[in-house]
Amino acid sequence: MLAGVASISLILAGCGSKSSQQKKTITTSTDSELTTVDLSKTTAVGTFNVLNNVDEGLYRLGKDSKVEPGIATSSTISKDGKTYTFNLRKNAKWSNGDPVTAKDFVYSWRRTLNPKTVSQYGYLFSGIKNADKIQNKKAAVSSLGIKADGKYKLTVTLEQRIPYFKLLMGFPVFFPQDSKTVNKYGNDYGTSSKTQVYNGPFTLTKWTGTNLNWTLKKNPNYWDKKAVKLDAVKFSVVKDPSTGLNLFNQKKLDMAQLSATQAKQMGNKKDMVSRKQSSCYYIALNQKNKAFKNLKIRQAMSMIINRKVLANKVVGGGAMDTDSFVSKGLAVSPQNGTDFTKDVTAPASMTYNPTKAKQLFKEGMQEVGLNSLHFTLMNSDSYDQKQLSEYLQSALQKLPGLKVTLNNIPGRVILSRQADHQFTATVANWFADFSDPITFLNILTSDNPSNISQWKNAEYDRLIKASNNDDGSNAQARWDDMVKAQNLALKDQAIIPLYQSGEKWMINSKVKGIVYNTAGANYNFKNAYIK
Fold first, then answer.
1. Closest Cα to residue 380, out of 37, 1, 3?
2. N or C: which end of the chain has fewer CB within 10 A?
3. Residue 315 gets which letter from DSSP?
């Protein structure tokens, strides 16, 4: 997703206290602010992690993204795979006491797809009847292929089979919304904990919209509240990882995420755990800019970056160097079981070659009629991202005549500017919404709101469309479309992939039951507890 990643460390509240109340509370730190809890509008990983715990859709995703019961108690699928019928549980309620009904799903999906909402996630609905037409303002929102057959029966009609449909249903964008609450708060909806209602294991409290602390509190109206063992999960924004490690060493932290330097200093201790993330951090160049329209300049900027040094010595924390946009470990070929990253072919520009990079840059500058180039690189202001920005500045300025100024700003600001294309160059990231390569590849299509670089290629669009439509029912043909699409995008340097993120933690064995998935909303606290 286009958002700064929320690196989480879980800490035991009141560690020295023996009270049972405190033993049922986990405190977490994050390096990024909450921007909104409006599921139709957010793109931030940290927000999706909150939404995954305060709300619930037709399904929940358990360990290894296993589909588990949510609001739906059962479902049937038509023989052609295009019609899903869901039976909803009758004891599901919103935190205000109202029942969760089929109409809440219909309302939520229509609201997200309505062009007036300007959701950056509307494209995920592609394949549901009329979703694309609605996005392109060629059909009424009411024509979307979702229908409430009474209060507790929901029917979804697809235009073609969607192999990952049930995985999508566990992603917060497809969760229900209470129309009464949306209408009540209008533009303020989701801008604070009090301007929202919840139907998940927890409710969000103590978030004003601008403060740096918030709490997930056990929801007494949740249908499966007996399974929820925690009373609360408390969040606070902490941007310096040294603070977390110090608290862990003082035995006030149960889980602390380590920076690259810290991980090296700690060695391979028994309490250290690595967590992979299905992600890609990359540089997006605004290709409306004269210089960045030139392919050789884009290639040179990619080739001057030593990704192994960047991943291992600058980012660390389990990060992996990558020459792919789609993350390693996300999906395997239906034909031979090979990882997607093994089937694609990385272009020469993804390999560190400073001599060739300087040559390409010189040629590109001559082609656009420039003697020098000065631009600002925008990135978030978290500790690790500041370190990354400084490394990129140093690497890029090895190109003759190039000067880079850094602009590290809060997460809520950077997301807004990226969405509005208010940048020349920016470090961005995308985190998989579900375990399929298309979750990455979709965002580089010409009309995707998350295509912040504004790169366009008709053949790429055709391949992605084919994978989502004509070849959707042929697993191998669909796979081949996606492989060709990534090859094309990287050859044309649509973006400059940098690394696939990971996390290294020091973990106290007292914290149990937290479900972590590499794709989609990462954290599920429903069954978490403190031993």
1. 3
2. C
3. I
Q: How far apart are CA 16 and CA 72, in angstroms?
A: 41
- Taking only Cα atoms into account, the Rg of the chain, rounded to an integer number of angstroms, comes to 23
The b/e string for 387-398 (b: 16+ C-beta within 10 A; e otherwise) is bbbebbeebbee
Crossing angle of helices 458-468 and 475-491, rounded to 10°: 160
pLDDT digit of tens for each residue in the chain (531 aa)?
333 334 443 333 333 334 334 569 888 877 788 989 999 999 888 899 999 999 999 999 999 889 999 999 999 999 989 999 999 999 999 999 999 999 999 999 999 999 999 998 898 998 999 999 999 999 999 999 999 999 999 999 999 888 889 999 999 999 999 999 999 999 999 999 999 999 999 999 999 999 988 999 999 999 999 999 999 998 888 777 888 788 777 777 777 778 777 877 777 777 888 888 999 999 999 999 999 999 999 999 999 999 999 998 898 878 999 999 999 989 889 999 999 999 999 999 999 999 999 999 999 999 999 999 999 999 999 888 999 999 999 999 999 999 999 999 998 799 899 999 999 999 999 999 888 999 999 999 998 989 999 999 999 999 998 987 778 778 899 999 999 999 999 999 999 999 999 888 877 778 899 999 989 898 999 999 998
Q: Helices 295-303 and 354-368, interaxial angle, to 10°?
A: 160
State how far the Cα of 385 lies from the Cα of 395, in Å rounded to an integer: 15
Helix residue ranges, H only, 177-330: 179-185, 241-249, 260-266, 295-303, 307-309
Burial of 258 (0-12, 13-18, 19+ CB in 10 A): buried
What are the residues whose beta carbons fall under 8 Å from the beta carbon of 268, sequence distance 6 or more?
none
Structure tokens at 94: 């919103």
CA distances 131 to 34, 110, 275, 480, Å, are 29, 9, 35, 25
Dist. CA 112–CA 131, nearest whole Å:
11
- 428 forms bridges with which residues in the sheet? 282
Contact 280, 324 (CB under 8 A): yes
State how far the alpha carbon of 297 is from the alpha carbons of 349, 432, 454, in Å.
Answer: 11, 29, 16
How many angstroms separate the CA atoms of 419 and 452, rounded?
A: 6
Q: Give the span between the Cα atoms of 309 and 305, in whole angstroms.
A: 9
β-pair type (373-380, 425-431): parallel
Q: Across-strand partners of 284? A: 426
Here the tokens at position 221 are: 């109206």
- Written as one string, the DSSP assignment of 489-519 is HHHTTSSEEEEE-EEEEEE-TTEE--EE-SS
The CB density around residue 157, as the number of other CB atoms within 10 Å, is 16
Closest CA to 47 of 218, 254, 193: 193
Calpha distance 413→462 (Å, rounded): 33
Read off the tokens for 468: 């989502």
Look up tokens 């890609």; give the residue.
280
**Alpha-carbon distances, residue 306 vs 277, 301, 323 (angstroms):** 21, 11, 11
